[in-house]
């Protein structure tokens, strides 16, 4: 039985790269797929232009593909989401397709949920009339009964090239593959394809089962690159089905030089979080987002997953549901006070220390200098590099309620907002105050705080200024390694601090727009 093999690395990998790739990666990728028996290469999406940035492979305009695919020797496929077609009242997506004879695209695949099929029949026929081979991907098939699958098939036009089913939630086992294949073959007599996800480590065995049950189209991606835990691996398929001489130097070079380092950096691949999410039928984007939240520890991430599973439609990603689960875990309550205390920092110099291992030498030097100069030194959410400081600032750090129990055994004052914790009566939080600045923050004489983000160092700076500090120094807040949204938030907050007349200087390297002072300048 002949297998039609489709590699969708660039399309599915875009969920990690935002559909933007370097020229070096593309060249190595083209060389790799040219060297193996891939039948189609799915290079990206065709969709309505979005307000937020997405790379060019999210749109796959004809002129772009003409310019960028010159090194690719395989037939080209792209994917369209049925939701986009349904929402596209002006038919911009369909109108963007030239005739197949005038395009580099050979195959168009439509990703479609069961309830959407009846709304896109005319679109399928139109694409077919333009000369394209058209396939349809039935999404989240693990959630569908046999009757729902049969109903879906009843709408399909005869001219479809292939009916795919996708293990979208990554929770299918071989017995589930057998059930779906058996149901499909009852009423569909065309080609059947399978798109596997690897959330539970079942991708390879599921592909094998699908082929044994009669599937003749199979998807894969290099190193499994794709949304969430990723997909069935191209290199595994090459080894299993690539024939007697299944080794490919070009494929190995692409894996080792480009894709494996990117996998380490971006983090796709099977994990216990993805497996837990799959067993609870969560949309994989939830897990992908949670895994990327470095301020969540394991306990908090599991709690979030459990909260999301209680939502009405956990198999459909919702940013609102995700934020609600994070808020519940973090216990972000109404920011109100009946009391505000202050620390005596009048006309004093203050050093705010971020626990950054790249600045250990600076931090230790400042600790010694602060003792000599009688400066006040404060830690932002705790610092392991110095033994003595005058206080710890903590806001809504999602792990801090557990850290707090350890810190309160010491005599170090904890400066925070009491309402940020479920029950702070057991904690010795000695000082609290709050402020707001600008559009996102505010300040008032009573000291009530509102911070839209978890920017503890901004809170600490405002607190010290409110308490009369004359000089405020930052050390260790270099801004490296944080995501773009937090960088923008910090930049905006620093601007607002400057507008208030608060003078901050940095005593270590930083990407932020702050004046630098070398701490050696302060030695006599």
Side by side, the strands of the main sheet go 1-2-3-4-5-6-7-8
CATH superfamily label of the largest domain = Aldolase class I
Mean pLDDT: 84
Strand content: 5-15%
Q: Which structural class do you get from the secondary structure elements? A: alpha/beta
Number of strands: 14
Query: How many domain regions?
Result: 3
Poorly predicted runs are 331-340, 418-453
CATH topology of the largest domain: TIM Barrel
CATH architecture of the largest domain: Alpha-Beta Barrel
Helix content: 25-40%
Describe the fold and architecture.
The protein has 524 residues and is of the alpha/beta class. It has three domains: 4-266, TIM Barrel (Alpha-Beta Barrel); 272-330, no CATH class; 349-522, 3-Layer(aba) Sandwich (Rossmann fold). It has helices spanning 9-17, 23-34, 62-68, 82-87, 92-95, 121-129, 146-154, 174-187, 203-212, 234-241, 249-266, 272-279, 284-291, 298-309, 319-330, 360-373, 400-407, 456-466, 484-499, and strands at residues 4-7, 40-45, 76-81, 105-112, 133-138, 162-166, 192-195, 217-220, 349-354, 376-380, 391-393, 414-415, 471-475, 504-506. It has an eight-stranded parallel β-barrel with strand order 1-2-3-4-5-6-7-8, surrounded by four helices. The chain has a six-stranded parallel β-sheet with strand order 12-11-10-9-13-14, sandwiched between helices. Helix 14 (298-309) packs across helix 15 (319-330). The N and C termini lie far apart (83 Å).
């Amino acid at each position: 039985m002949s297998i039609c093999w489709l590699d969708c690395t660039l399309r599915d990998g875009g969920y990690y790269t935002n559909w933007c790739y370097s020229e070096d990666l593309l060249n190595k990728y083209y060389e790799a797929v040219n060297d193996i028996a891939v039948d189609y290469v799915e290079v990206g999406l065709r969709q309505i232009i979005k307000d937020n940035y997405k790379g060019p492979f999210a749109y796959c305009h004809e002129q772009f593909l003409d310019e960028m695919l010159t090194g690719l020797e395989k037939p080209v496929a792209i994917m369209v989401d049925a939701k986009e077609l349904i929402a596209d009242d002006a038919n911009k997506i369909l109108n963007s397709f030239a005739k197949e004879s005038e395009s580099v695209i050979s195959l168009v695949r439509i990703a479609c949920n069961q309830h959407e099929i009846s709304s896109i029949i005319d679109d399928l026929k139109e694409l077919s009339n333009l000369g394209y081979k058209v396939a349809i991907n039935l999404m989240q098939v693990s959630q569908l009964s046999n009757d729902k699958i049969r109903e879906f098939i009843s709408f399909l036009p005869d001219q479809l090239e292939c009916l795919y089913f996708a293990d979208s939630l990554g929770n299918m086992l071989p017995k589930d593959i057998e059930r779906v294949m058996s149901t499909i073959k009852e009423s569909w007599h065309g080609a059947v394809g399978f798109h596997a996800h690897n959330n539970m480590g079942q991708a390879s065995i599921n592909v094998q089962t699908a082929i044994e049950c009669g599937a003749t189209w199979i998807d894969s991606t290099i190193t499994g690159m794709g949304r969430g835990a990723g997909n069935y691996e191209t290199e595994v398929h090459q080894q299993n089905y690539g024939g007697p001489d299944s080794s490919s130097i070009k494929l190995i070079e692409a894996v080792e030089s480009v894709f494996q380092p990117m996998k380490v950096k971006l983090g796709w691949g099977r994990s216990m979080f993805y497996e837990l999410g799959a067993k609870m039928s969560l949309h994989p984007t939830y897990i992908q987002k949670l895994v990327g939240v470095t301020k969540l520890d394991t306990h908090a991430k599991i709690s979030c997953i459990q909260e999301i599973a209680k939502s009405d439609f956990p198999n459909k990603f919702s940013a609102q549901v995700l934020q609600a689960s994070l808020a519940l875990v973090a216990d972000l309550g109404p920011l109100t006070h009946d009391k505000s205390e202050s620390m005596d920092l009048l006309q004093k110099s203050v050093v705010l220390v971020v626990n950054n291992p790249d600045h250990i030498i600076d931090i230790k030097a400042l600790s010694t200098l602060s003792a000599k100069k009688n400066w006040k030194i404060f830690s932002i959410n705790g610092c392991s590099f110095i033994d003595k400081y005058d206080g710890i600032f903590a806001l809504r750090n999602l792990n801090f309620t557990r850290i707090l129990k350890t810190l309160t055994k010491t005599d170090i004052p904890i400066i925070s907002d009491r309402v940020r914790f479920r029950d702070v009566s057991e904690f010795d939080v000695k000082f609290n105050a709050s402020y707001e600045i600008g559009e996102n923050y505010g300040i008032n004489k009573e000291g009530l705080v509102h911070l839209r983000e978890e920017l503890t160092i901004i809170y600490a700076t405002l607190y010290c200024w409110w308490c009369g500090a004359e000089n405020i120094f930052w050390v260790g807040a270099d801004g490296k390694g944080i995501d773009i949204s937090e960088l923008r938030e910090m930049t905006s907050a620093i601007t607002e601090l400057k507008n208030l007349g608060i003078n901050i200087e940095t005593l270590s390297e930083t990407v932020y727009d702050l004046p630098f002072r070398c701490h050696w300048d302060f030695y006599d």
